[in-house]
Amino acid sequence: MLYAPMPKPTTCLPGFLLLTVLLGACQPPAPQPLQARTVALGQATSVRVDVPYAGRWRVQERPEWLSVSPQAGTGPVALTVTIDRARATPLKANLAELSAEIKLAWSAGEGSREKTGEVTWPVTARQFELRGRVVAPAQTQGNDAQAAPRVNPAPAPAARGVIVKYRAAAGQTGVRALQAAGVKVSSVQALGGTLTRLNVSDVDAALRTLRADPQVEYAVPNALLRAQGTLAQPVVPGDQYAGLQWSYALAGYAAVWRDMEAGSYSRPVTVAVIDSGVRFDHPDLKGQMWGPGEGALDVLDFEAGEKAGDPPRYDNGDGDGPDTDPTDAGDAGRTTGSHGTHVTGIIAARWGDHGASCEGCSPTGVVGATYKANVKVLPVRVIDSRGDATEADVALAIRYAAGLPVTLKGTTYRTPHAAQVINLSLGGELKAEAARPLCEAIADARAAGALVVAAAGNGYGTTPYYPAACEGAVAVGSVTLSGASAPVRSPFSNAYPQVQLSAPGGAEPYSANSFNGGKLNGSAFPDAIFSTDWNYKENRPMYTAQVGTSQASPQVAALAALLLSKGVTTGAADTLARLNATATDLGAKGRDDLFGFGMINAAAALNAPAVSSGLGLRLQHARGQSFQPALDPLGRFQAYLADGSYAVIGGTDRDSNGVYGETHELRDERQITLGEDTPSADVGDLNPR
């Protein structure tokens, strides 16, 4: 082996200085910080970021609408940033570019040479653009044009008797012919010549009889006509807390309550509330329910101790077993309110002044959906004072509420007021096999003619809850206000294939956002459902705000009852069909797991008169988010949105609920998909008709 000779040094260095130089040359370089970097996604969904680095790093902060993977590492930074634009898009959809920051913590070196720090990486992402214009519907005169028919229109208002024209004055024998046919004639009024108005008990039968009479030239219904070009005045309740009950306005009840003033909701309907029982002594509920001796029932058992003086093995809260008094019992130690009382109030709380029942109590309180309709609640108690209910008790209660006999402790009970509608604001995460007793009871109730409505569950997920998921039940999800012209799904509301309808159930009571505009005790009222309740500590009535599918379900039950009471429908099947057909489609087009067929619309279902005539835009992402871009004076809009599919609807609002272009309203709709292949779209003119 050959060695190159070392050159002779030209100068002499002191030994200690040479050692210092050699030691310095052997030390590693000083640790370097992680450098700043701008992450520009453009219009992509994900981007790969590679940054040379010698050290340790981890993602410390990021917005919820950005995901970063992996979250930590050693050595070069190699991660993927993914954006969920829909979650980042503001309500007004007015940001062409989204921006945020990712904060990373870093450390390099060891021991005394270790350095640590933080670095912020700006992130930018361009949005996709949607343009269009909402054009006011053309004003029509005479027979120039006609609005397109709405989906599954409600029956026309019932005629008030018949008008008959006889061929000769001497031939006016129609009254006798009608009486002979069993048709009652309550009054007769001459209209001039041989024209006569008859008020009759059965319009169809009267027309058949009269038209068969050779002396009758013609017979027609005495049809109801309404003024065109004018709006009915909405009914606004004057009860103290009615202004906080935003859910009724969202469902179109301002128009429905005006419709009720005509007195056409006269058919008797019973809604069973299978729940924790009810407080019959709540002043806002007196007279609204079937009570003890009228069909109300407590199915809960009571198990005494083994011997005298022992505490009971099971006490449902009222100290006795099954009986006809489903009062939601409790004492000063009870910390919860009355769930059944809250649910019942949503359906049937009475209107107007009922007198203050205690010092400081409201003399008017809240209102219920059914107002002047001939609807009563049948309370059936299955939830004990601890909030628990068993499958067996609920199955018994379902059959009982539907009018079937049940035997409890050797006594057979059968209600004299079988329910046409049954509400179940209860449920649990059961397997389908374990839920068979509930589902079989629901099948029996449907066979008996009852429509069974149930809460879809508050599990924040996609697991089916029973009994809502039973075949034959109507599973109801919850929606809440969004600040846009369409509601959104409540975060807690379970989404699964059996969800059939949605109704207002609110958002978390302490949510940072509140869109209803109400105030309670000087503070912004949360987007929650306000209804009747009971204060057990003070043993007095109260009113509380609650959220959940438990609050959404009775709103569907109440509307079903109103359809039956008005005579729009006559049984469970056509009532459900009507609810589905008139619901406001939300999210993906058609039925979906998030909303079912959509949010119920009482005004559409009941063919209530128009109380408003606003024109606007409804913009919905298929995932359920709603956005509200501004319209300029010419109706034009420009929205910056996430990738995905959208329903773009221009329409009118005839029921004053702020939702444009529902099934009973003028509308023009486009389905648009935005993405990297279609970064912008122009829907042109939306012409509601």
Characterization of the model:
There is one protein chain. With 689 residues, this protein is of the alpha/beta class. The chain has 4 domains: 39-126, Immunoglobulins (Immunoglobulin-like), CATH 2.60.40.10; 145-154 and 610-686, Immunoglobulin-like (Sandwich); 162-221; 242-521 and 530-582, Peptidase S8/S53 domain (Rossmann fold). It is 16% helix and 28% strand. The chain contains 12 helices and 33 strands. The strands form 9 sheets. Strands 14, 15, 16, 19, 20, 21, 22 and 23 form an 8-stranded mixed beta sheet that branches. α7 (339-348) runs parallel beside α10 (549-566). The protein starts with 14 loop residues before the first helix and ends with a strand. Residues 1-24 and 139-156 have low confidence and may be disordered. Pfam families: Fervidolysin_NPro-like, Peptidase_S8.
Index terms:
alpha/beta, Immunoglobulin-like, five-stranded mixed sheet, globular, eight-stranded mixed sheet, 33 strands
Q: Which segments are poorly predicted (pLDDT under 50) over 5 or more consecutive residues?
A: 1-24, 139-156
**The CATH architecture of the largest domain:** 3-Layer(aba) Sandwich
Shape descriptor reads globular
What is the strand tally? 33
In the CATH hierarchy, the third-tier topology of the largest domain is known as Rossmann fold
Find the CATH superfamily of the largest domain.
Peptidase S8/S53 domain
Radius of gyration: 34 Å
Q: Helicity range of the residues? A: 10-25%
Distance between the termini: 99 Å
Give the overall pLDDT as a whole number. 90
List the domain count as a whole number. Answer: 4
Q: How many helical elements?
A: 12
Assembly status: single chain
CATH class of the largest domain: Alpha Beta
Backbone structural class? alpha/beta
